[in-house]
Amino acid sequence: MFGENVGIGKEPVSAREKRVWLKSVQEKLKGQTYQACYRNTAEQTILEKIQRDYTEMKHNERTTGYEKPHLLYDYPTEPCGDIIVKEDSRTAAEKQADMNADDVQKKLGTYVAPRHQLVTFQIVGIKYAQPYIDYTKGLDEYVKSLLTAQNTSMTLDIPLQMYNTLPEHLKAQDIRREHSVRPSRSMDANEDFAARVLEFASSEKARAFLDNETCPSSSTQCGKKFLAAPYGSNYLIIDEIGKLFTRIAAIAFPVALGLAAVIIWFTVSRIMAENRKETAVYRAMGAKRRDIAHIYVVYIMLIALRVVLVSAIVGIVIALAVDYSYGRTLTDTAATAFGIIDRAPAVRLFNVDSSLLLVVVAAIVAISLVASMQPLVRNTMRNPIRDIRDE
């Protein structure tokens, strides 16, 4: 509708270019106006009758004895104009019967008079509607499938706060009343059975409500009180992935520390075995076991410090490289998936201020000391005279 008028180019493929494109689209479209002819359900029924009557007469134009409808309408001759009565061959009795039917509906409060109105819309924002996402095509599509729900909406969104600021002569209450809430097939139009969007303080509460109080919308043999499904972003799936990684880390981290302890134990034991002669000489010269222990503790701490520095530098460099390479892509993908053009929060895969770094450093130092205790105690308790003679 606006592409050629305001110069909207073709949608790019990459997430970074798409985010820039969406921002330009929003800037170009914001404030643009357009008009649409609104016809209520009564007039839409008449328009359907025009097409249905035309098709029926065309199909039976050579049928002997065919009698065309007594009341024929014709399309408006101008945009958003009145529907024209093309031919009215009803008898007086038929007209009276139709009038009586309208009177009954009026008494019941169900009568809807045909009505049309030329409505002017002003664009205040854009909704990046995305249909089916094929997550097998690449990282962008997979992230979209995690972050967003499938959006097949083809309707307009009118911000209620902005609509309420309009003067009364510009409001179209029947449009809101008829189309603001459309019950589904399994939903009663009564307010008590209307659809609701519930918000929970945590993913645990949301999951507990879905598990304990609701049935899937496709279930036919569930006796629980509500039908429900996650709405909006797939936060529960993301939360499950986070918990899975936490469980994996809870197993992998102790295993890694155990392997490190074994390696450090073998390394320290070998070093102390190679330096038994020097240790025995120190002992023979009057050095106490405590002094020898201090020397090796300092040596072990220097090794641990070197491991910390090397692993921290290598790990941080790799993490920053991954964050720089993929973090920006994920940010752009998430921003375009949610339609957030400005002030979108950045997706960070690594944070230097993370308390996990302190935990890792403390774990390396602690495991180095713990793994060195047994060979250190064994070495300091040896007889220096026998070590000098044997070595």
Automatic annotation (TrEMBL):
First and last residue of the signal peptide: none
Membrane topology, as annotated: Multi-pass membrane protein
Lineage, top ranks: Bacteria, Candidatus Saccharimonadota, Candidatus Saccharimonadia, Candidatus Saccharimonadales, Candidatus Saccharimonadaceae
Domain of life: Bacteria
One family name in Pfam for this protein: FtsX
Domain (ABC3 transporter permease C-terminal) ranges: 255-373
Residues passing through the membrane, by range: 244-268, 295-322, 356-377
Name of the protein in question: FtsX domain-containing protein
Subcellular location: Cell membrane
Main localization, broad class: membrane
